[in-house]
Amino acid sequence: MKFSSSIVFAVQALTVFALPAPNKNKVGVSTSAAALIASATTVAAVATATATATPATGEAKDEEEKEAGETEQEGAFGVAINLNGGDVKTDTEFPPGTNGKFEVEFKNPQARVLRVTENNTPAAAPVGFTAFEPSSYKVELSGSGKGLTLSKIDYIGNTGVDVSQVQLGRLCTETNSFVVGGGVVEREFEAEENEIASNVDNLVGEFGFFVPAAAGTGTATEGAATGNATTGGATTGGATTGGATTGVAATLKGCEAGTACRALLDALLQAVGN
């Protein structure tokens, strides 16, 4: 690890500064040094975990998908498409629209036949929302769309289009109006794929994609800066920035703000963070 020598040096230096005056008892010295070394080790571990968490998660996901034998296929609107049974996950992606692509995720012991129809003249957007995609999508199955092992409606943004604020809406046939969040069990924004994945309680229905009226559309860069999993998560305001420095200093006497010990500790954290 490239920070190993820096960490060892810094720990040694910090130990010297953190030691009490010569007239202090030996037990105090031992306790302070042990606390310092343990705290510095924790800082390095937190930084390492933060730096490697995202790649590890991605690799685990890819491996999981390979083991499950996931099938990915291209679909066409208005055409019957076979979906696998045997609880083998099948992702069916359709041609791109104005701002993104419609995708159906299916998994179930019994197979189904899927047909998706694009509606170019859908019902109006709900009050307070704007249609993000001008079309809606009618999903039909040869069997029930309820109680499936996996039933997701996804929306993948086209290049340069931010979809982080997009919400799934289902058409209520009784009122002929869309209900944002209707039947949605869980919504997830996957920043790496620029994709909204919505777990629904019934895969059959007519779906549209909407954003709050004030949100409008943006670029992928704007989406990455606001509201996604990276910003406001583990990196910003979390264990690495601010929290670790305070935690370590709090365990050491003589390492308060303004001391040489604290200056070295801050330098160590900055080096690890870079």
Q: How is this structure best summarized?
A:
The chain is of the alpha+beta class and 274 residues long. The chain has helices at 4-18, 26-68, 220-225, 239-250, 260-273, and strands at 71-74, 81-83, 90-93, 100-107, 112-119, 129-131, 136-141, 150-157, 167-172, 177-180, 184-190, 195-200, 205-212.
The tally of helices reads: 5
Q: How much helical structure, as a percent, in the residues?
A: 25-40%
Domain count: 2
Calculate Rg over CA atoms: 26 Å
Number of strands: 13
- SS-based class: alpha+beta
Q: The CATH topology of the largest domain is what?
A: Chondroitinase Ac, Chain A, domain 3
List low-pLDDT spans.
1-11, 14-18, 24-40, 42-56, 218-245
Q: SSE string, helix = H, strand = E? A: HHEEEEEEEEEEEEEHHH
